């Protein structure tokens, strides 16, 4: 891909649903926003970080907050552009491209909409190659890059700028502001140069997202080898197929937290539990963790192949539990320390991808 | 006064203690900060709003947060200047003077320190002529002036800028950020021109504060007519003299809330209760309100004349309960609606100053 057209949006939305791993919120409104922006402004060039002026400023964008709130408060459409132009004003310079912070959920689509509106290319990269529930869980943070200044814009056009002395503090202050904003905002964080993105962003993330989406669409359309192709393209595996027998979901401290329990569909008497904090973080069977963060756990509707968010889960749903390996940088010791299960308060070690249950 | 010297600080501190009406926190650290600034940079010109370029930007400053926290987190000294220079950067223009938002507690002293450091005059005015626990309780808000942009700087050099579409939202977002900052910050809010301050600020507030302080110092020094002079200068009255028999204090939602109950010292079997939210807001006897916000209720140690903050109250203390009338603008219907007892959740009407119990 060297540009993103309106025809790419269905696949990107599906891929973003898989990479959202339960978080990211319903993509309905972000999808409308990006389709409207592309309809009005035409295709957006998709560029590599190395294609841009190395000293040029990239405008990074993500959805911030608890996905639970996304169903209650709709974006009005102006937030992404407002956040990025406020960042430009604050820094006193213009951006040369828009960079997605994460390629999960609405955070994948809004940067494309903003790029269309600002007449800028979007960069085929991100900082997570998935969604994560906290803004410091990025390869930029691993590289020592400041998340500040962070610009937050809410659905009522209120603006907050955070300049913290370290990234965990930035996350804490931004989360407090987002909670007061009704638990949802568009955030511009980690302003970097194209050279910094070339060195530290995860290259090809939007292409990867679109590729996953095309495979999911093939599954939805009944392609016989749909899952085989998806697993081959991603190195993923299917760890469980089951029916929801228990669901526990609450909004706490700006996050949607909970667990979903599945009984298997084959009468084998197996039970899988998935723990989530916005995103699915741990999948375990009989107390034995099978897949843990930073690897990806996505729940797909068995019949339709649709990636499910934690908000759309319901008792009795039949789901395919798909696991994808995280980008290899996440598997290094500092990656595991930052984004492994202990970082989320779980008293268990990271399980190497495929380490159990194969 | 046409300048503020280091010799004016004791009286200003005492006056600020009275006008803090229990809030504003212990003035110890702000006093050290302003004395250090005046020692280093010399006296600060004290000017009237009309003395300045009408289009010139005033840099307004206040302490924000729960006074309870002031005893635990000390300002490092750089916050006032950091907040005002961040405001200048954000607005893209330089200030011509520093304006206190309130003349209660540390909020009186820090603007003087900042003015000394920035080489600017301080304006002899404020927007409350007292302390209030919420940033929208100002004459500027009554005049329809936006509190945004609000710049907050905490004791660890973190910075938050809030640009809200209305002042109650600005207050809510700023309070959420301040709470995440450890419940204390220095805030620059309501940036105005000198012409706006000339029209809508309360003129002479720093002089008034110093005058009150000089009378309190006379009381402390045992002047026979000390209270008489204080009451004559302010139109105030002493509503009670008693001993603390009950004290109830908690930190809630970024505020110090509670009640203090006094039994009278004359064996007359009278009991007075004062309700506070950072500041003392209602004083009542046997369920009958005697003095209510926006009028001022200050508790002074009977022996030493020292104005007490809610944090320094303790069982058995003997206190003089001093009531001062609010600035007349507060007594107009919109002033009562904004800052009267119902605005703080009390189910009672404003009691005209001196209306009961005389």
TrEMBL record, chains A, B:
<dbReference type="Pfam" id="PF20906">
    <property type="entry name" value="S-Me-THD_C"/>
</dbReference>
<protein>
    <recommendedName>
        <fullName>DUF917 domain-containing protein</fullName>
    </recommendedName>
</protein>
<dbReference type="InterPro" id="IPR024071">
    <property type="entry name" value="S-Me-THD_C_sf"/>
</dbReference>
<dbReference type="Pfam" id="PF06032">
    <property type="entry name" value="S-Me-THD_N"/>
</dbReference>
<dbReference type="InterPro" id="IPR027479">
    <property type="entry name" value="S-Me-THD_N_sf"/>
</dbReference>
<feature type="domain" description="S-Me-THD-like C-terminal">
    <location>
        <begin position="166"/>
        <end position="352"/>
    </location>
</feature>
<dbReference type="InterPro" id="IPR048350">
    <property type="entry name" value="S-Me-THD-like_C"/>
</dbReference>
<dbReference type="InterPro" id="IPR010318">
    <property type="entry name" value="S-Me-THD_N"/>
</dbReference>
<feature type="domain" description="S-Me-THD N-terminal">
    <location>
        <begin position="7"/>
        <end position="163"/>
    </location>
</feature>
């Amino acid at each position: 891909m060297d540009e993103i057209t309106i025809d790419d949006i269905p696949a990107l939305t599906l891929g973003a649903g898989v990479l959202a791993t339960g978080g990211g919120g319903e993509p309905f409104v972000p999808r409308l926003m990006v389709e409207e922006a592309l309809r009005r402004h035409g295709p957006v060039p998709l560029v590599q970080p190395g294609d841009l002026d190395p000293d040029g400023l990239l405008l990074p964008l993500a959805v911030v907050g608890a996905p639970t709130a996304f169903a209650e408060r709709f974006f009005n459409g102006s937030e992404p552009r407002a956040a990025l132009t406020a960042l430009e004003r604050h820094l006193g310079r213009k951006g040369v491209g828009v960079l997605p912070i994460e390629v999960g959920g609405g955070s994948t689509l809004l940067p494309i909409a903003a790029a269309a509106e600002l007449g800028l290319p979007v960069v085929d990269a991100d900082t997570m190659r998935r969604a994560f529930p906290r803004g410091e869980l990025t390869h930029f943070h691993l590289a020592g890059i400041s998340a500040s200044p962070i610009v937050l814009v809410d659905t009522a056009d209120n603006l907050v700028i955070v300049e913290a002395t370290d990234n965990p503090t930035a996350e804490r202050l931004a989360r407090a502001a987002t909670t007061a904003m009704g638990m949802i905002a568009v955030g511009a964080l980690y302003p970097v140069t194209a050279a910094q993105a070339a060195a530290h962003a995860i290259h090809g993330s939007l292409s990867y997202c679109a590729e996953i989406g095309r495979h999911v669409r093939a599954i939805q359309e009944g392609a016989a080898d749909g899952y085989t192709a998806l697993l081959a393209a991603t190195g993923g595996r299917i760890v469980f197929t089951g029916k929801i027998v228990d669901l526990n979901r609450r909004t706490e401290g700006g996050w949607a937290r909970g667990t979903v329990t599945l009984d298997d569909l084959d009468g084998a008497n197996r039970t899988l539990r998935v723990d989530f904090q916005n995103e699915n973080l741990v999948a375990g069977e009989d107390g034995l963790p099978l897949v843990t963060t930073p690897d990806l756990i996505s729940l797909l509707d068995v019949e339709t192949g649709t990636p499910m968010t934690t908000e759309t889960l319901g008792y009795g749903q039949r789901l395919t539990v798909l696991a994808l390996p995280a980008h290899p940088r996440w598997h290094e010791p500092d990656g595991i320390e930052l984004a492994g299960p202990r970082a989320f308060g779980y008293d268990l070690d990271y399980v190497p991808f495929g380490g159990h249950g194969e």
